[in-house]
Each structure stands twice: as C-alpha cells, then as structure tokens.
C-alpha cells in the first residue's frame, strides 16, 4: 500500500513542466540561503565552514567574499563543519544573508555570533547584535530587510536547540520559544517584536513595508505581523502550508517564494521538497516539485532572480538553478 503522505505529495504537480535545471557547485556543504547585490551579482551564500562566497561565473565559480569570525584560521576551517560546536565559534557559521540595496551592505545572521554586517567589498564582518537579553542567542537563523525603513528583522528559532539538534525530536517537540527581533541601523537598538513562535526559520518584509512574514517550521504555517495601518502590531495566520517551511524570499513584484518540505518521520526522516509562490494576500499562485532534482533532500530556500529559481539546501554542495522554458 502506498503511504498516504506520498500520495499527498504527488497531488502537487510541477506547474512548470518544461524547465532546465543546472548545478552551481560549491566548495563545501551548507548553503542555507542566497543573496544578490544591487547589480545582480551573485549568488552569495554562506558555507558551513564559515565562509561567505560569491559566484563569479562558470570559469571562476564560487570565490571567497567574507567571513564572520575575526580570527578564523583558514587551515583549520576551510572544508570543515562549522556546525560543530567545537569549531563553529572559531570558524563562524553564516546562515541568513540579505543585502540592503540602498547602502550596498550585506547583513548576515551567524549561528554563533548573531547579527553582523559587511561592506560591498567583503572582508571580515562586523558584529551588530549578539545575545538574548544579555545571554547568547538560542539559534539565530533567518534575516530580512525592510525596503522602506532599512530596519533589519531576524529570527531566533528558540530554546529547543539547547536541548537537541535532532530534527525528528524538534518536529515532535511543540516548542514555541522562538522570537522575531528587529534591529534599527540608525539607533543601533534591538527589540523583540514577536514571541511564541514555533521554530521561526524564515522571514520576509512586504514590498511596501506594511507587514513582515515569519515561517514557523513545526507549525507548518506563515504568520503575518502588521507593521503599519489599522492592524499595526497585531499578528495573524497568513498561510497554512502542506509541510514544513523555511526561508521566505520576496520577488520584485511583491509575491513570495517559500520552500515547503513534506516530511515523513518513519522509519527515518525524509523530505519531499516543493517550492510555493504566494501572493501578498496569502494565496498560492504556483507550486514547483523539486523531487526529481533533490530526491528526499530538505530544501532551505527558493528565490526568484532574473527569471530563474535559485534553490538552496543546507545539505547540498551546490546551488540549483531552475529555469522555466518557453514552449
């Protein structure tokens, strides 16, 4: 008998049947998120050995751009696992990335050092905000920049990561200790704007700056916090999803892409990865099935750029480029 979950997964067709898919190989694993600069350069992405790299074309491939650790020993860190609590604090572990296209600065969330920023020329990033009310963050993760105010929103996925890094245990935990934080570059103040989140691992701000979206991994939903208007400072469910989401990325037209991983826990945790495009009203516009390209690999981001979808997975040593073909 075919499991119900598998049947459910295949009910989501690949809406863009005619497409191409290519791999941009990385020096190592760990591409959680991608970013593009104001001149369409990139993708930039963080690796699990602590480097942030930029793709400079087919001949050069990915080259080093920045690091988050001020005293990162290259011979120790390059190619090693920065997620390891022994080497991570030394090597750094950049996870979320987003450019402020007005200033050219790249904002970074590092798993061990918190919120950071580096200029358009790269180099060693500067730490802006670290600590959770005076103690280390539980697990800073995703980042987004308000295109109107320049405010930086980032998530702390919660205390569950002090207890376990086992994803099956996290899925079953029901943890709601996650938070959404805001950093104001003008005042350099950091504030908590939303609490009680179920492992918030994705964030995006609307094109007009009126609301911010937060993906909640265990709750399989996206929550909207209104920033302006009559509903300002109130939150609501924006979209219920068929699986576990991750990073949310806004398109130039104001829609959003989110990866949705339909996960099967038994006999072991496997994922059926999708990408869903959602409009500003929470309506699903398009669903893309990535199972043919990623099999059962968890996908952490889907981002639309110049007509292609850039697909990241923290478990892959490449960035995938999915392009719809005109028939």
TrEMBL record:
GO terms for cellular component: endomembrane system; vacuole. One of its GO terms (molecular function) is lyase activity. Pfam families: Str_synth. Residues 1-18 form the signal peptide. Its EC number is 4.3.3.2. It is found in: Vacuole. The keyword Signal applies. Residues 141-229 form the Strictosidine synthase conserved region domain. InterPro entries: 6-blade_b-propeller_TolB-like, Strictosidine_synth_cons-reg. Keywords: Glycoprotein, Lyase, Signal, Vacuole. Coiled coil: none annotated. PANTHER family: PROTEIN STRICTOSIDINE SYNTHASE-LIKE 9-LIKE, STRICTOSIDINE SYNTHASE-RELATED. Belongs to the strictosidine synthase family. This is Putative alkaloid synthase/Surface mucin Hemomucin.
């Amino acid at each position: 008998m075919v499991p119900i979950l598998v049947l459910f997964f295949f009910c989501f067709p690949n809406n863009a049947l005619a497409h191409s898919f290519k791999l941009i190989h990385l020096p190592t694993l760990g591409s959680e998120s991608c970013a593009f600069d104001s001149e369409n350069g990139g993708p930039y992405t963080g690796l699990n050995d602590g480097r942030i790299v930029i793709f400079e074309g087919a001949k050069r491939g990915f080259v080093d751009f920045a690091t988050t650790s001020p005293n990162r020993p290259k011979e120790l860190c390059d190619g090693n696992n920065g997620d390891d609590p022994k080497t991570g604090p030394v090597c750094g572990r950049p996870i979320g990335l987003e450019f402020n296209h007005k200033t050219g600065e790249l904002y970074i969330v590092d798993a061990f050092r918190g919120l950071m920023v580096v200029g358009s020329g790269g180099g060693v990033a500067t730490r802006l905000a670290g600590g959770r009310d005076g103690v280390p963050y539980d697990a800073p993760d995703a980042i987004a920049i308000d295109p109107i105010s320049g405010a930086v929103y980032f998530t702390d996925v919660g205390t569950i990561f002090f207890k376990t890094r086992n994803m099956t245990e996290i899925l079953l935990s029901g943890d709601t200790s996650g938070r959404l934080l805001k950093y104001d570059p003008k005042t350099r103040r950091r504030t908590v704007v939303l609490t009680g989140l179920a492992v918030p691992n994705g964030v995006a701000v609307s094109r007009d700056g009126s609301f911010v979206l937060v993906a909640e991994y265990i709750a399989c939903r996206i929550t909207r916090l209104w920033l302006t208007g009559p509903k300002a400072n109130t939150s609501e469910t924006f979209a219920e999803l068929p699986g576990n989401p991750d990073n949310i990325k806004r398109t130039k037209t104001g829609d959003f892409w989110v990866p949705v991983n339909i996960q099967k826990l038994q006999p072991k945790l496997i994922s059926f990865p999708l990408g869903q495009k959602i409009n500003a009203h929470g309506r699903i516009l398009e669903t893309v099935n990535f199972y043919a390209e990623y099999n059962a690999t968890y996908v952490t981001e889907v981002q639309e750029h110049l007509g292609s979808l850039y697909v990241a997975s923290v478990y892959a040593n490449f960035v995938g480029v999915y392009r719809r073909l005109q028939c």
